[in-house]
């Protein structure tokens, strides 16, 4: 019987800590959720004007100057800007201009071929680099703006010696 009492006492001592642990859990302060409040978090962004310009090459091909007729060509300039952005597209005189006349230079000699760039198909409105005078302006929409550049080697230009000719024109978008 003594053995049984000791066993019961041992169980009782073991049960007390477990019981106290459970009781303590219920006695600990618990967070009460009796009310709530809300706040407003402002969210904003700023879209700045930005533009990208991508011109295609203008290739006049083989010049046939002996007949006195001009040699015409065209190229495209694609301008993509933030919608609503107003812009002007200008073109400088190229690398080899002289006296305000654009010229292509022969690759192997010091010879030149004159050419002109225009903003209209009739080739009557020169395309230059002075905003408000000879640039092309626009306002960006949701789609890119595609403009045609019309080029001409005048039939009255001096005959070009044999060879390949090239120039580089810088296209600038001001916004």
Automatic annotation (TrEMBL):
The keyword Signal applies. Residues 1-34 form the signal peptide. Transmembrane segments: none annotated. Residues 39-172 form the Spore coat protein U/FanG domain. Keywords: Signal. It holds the Pfam family SCPU. The keyword Disulfide bond does not apply. This is SCPU domain-containing protein.
